[in-house]
Design brief:
Structural class: alpha/beta
Radius of gyration: 21 Å
Domain FAD-binding: 3-325
Strand content: 25-35%
Pfam family, one: FAD_binding_3
GO molecular function, one term: FAD binding
CATH architecture of the domain at 3-70 and 93-165 and 259-334: 3-Layer(bba) Sandwich
Cofactor: FAD
Strand order of the largest sheet: 6-5-14-15-16-13-17
Keywords: FAD, Flavoprotein, Monooxygenase, Oxidoreductase
CATH superfamily of the domain at 3-70 and 93-165 and 259-334: FAD/NAD(P)-binding domain
Helix content: 25-40%
Largest sheet: 7 strands, mixed
CATH class of the domain at 3-70 and 93-165 and 259-334: Alpha Beta
Length: 380
Amino acid sequence: MGEAIVVGGGIGGLAAAVALDRIGWRATVLERTPVLGEIGAGMSQAPNALRALDELGVGEPARSAGVPTCAAGNVRTPDGRYLQRARPGDPTAMLAFHRADLHRVLLDATPDGWVRTGAEVTGLRQEAGRVTVVAGGDELTADLLVAADGIRSTARRLLWPDAPPPRFLGRTAWLGIADVDGLPGSMTLGPGGYFLIHPVARGRAYWAHVTTESRPDVRFDDEKAEVTRRIGSWHDPIPELIDRTPPGSVIHIDIHDLDPLPTYVRGRVALLGDAAHAMSPDRGQGAGQSLEDAVVLAAALATEPTVEAALHRYDTGRRPRTQATALGARKDGARTTSRAAYRALTTMIRLMPAALWRRSIAPDGNATWRWQPPRLPARA
């Protein structure tokens, strides 16, 4: 079996570590921050991601940490009118999480001693079928480097120096967590933006307001007050959610993605997750595609005769799907925040037969959700 270095201790990096452990590899996870954790607020995971978690062996604890969300079934307008409405008792295909809860599930499944914090990678080189990284003044060498260090990946910058930097998509988002229990989840479409609600564990709700912005890095002295100013008149429970979010805890981010690369592999280095295919959140697939990456990479390493053959299989298998998903998310985000398209979009949703809408959000309702993971061998 082999040895790997995983750069990045987020959801994608830990998923890679868990997957490598499943096939009998050893790994060292290098995380640049001094304390391991997951930033952000909430997320949803679709059936494809849940199947990946099952294959990683963490499906049961992940489902225990998640909460069913009907956000895809409850679509509203700012005055509270429903364009589509989930029926009581309708099954839902998606689970919602606080990011930290899903991160903890993966961290608990990562072998003790594999994660090193405060280890920022500053250089790497490849020679004689090995990869060496420089991190925190130390050098580490392994058979494989998995770069899961996010949209501004060091490995991507070093090995793909001509690749374009992250692209600002003309949209910005405010995120928060409020102590509001019992919400089923919903999405409210307004002219130029939307408001998303997911229930998360321990009687809380995650919310996000996404809207257009002409340039990045526009910030406000009081982000919570700014969100209230913009959408405080929208239907209940939106004002309550914003009001009950602790002061100073509202997160404001700009939305970026990455243009497609011709390959995710250089030598014995493989990009994974956002380092390979960062995408906008509009299809809820960013973390899910990272989980898929981890399973596919480990399956290839377990079955191909060489690391090089495994990385070729990983690259050719993952690029078409992830790049198509990223492009679709970019288009979805532009459509759902377009003032010009607002009336046509809401009319289309309102006129769609409810049965057809429910079929579209069933576990097998679209090609992205229908993905099936390769099987990982039994733990060595």
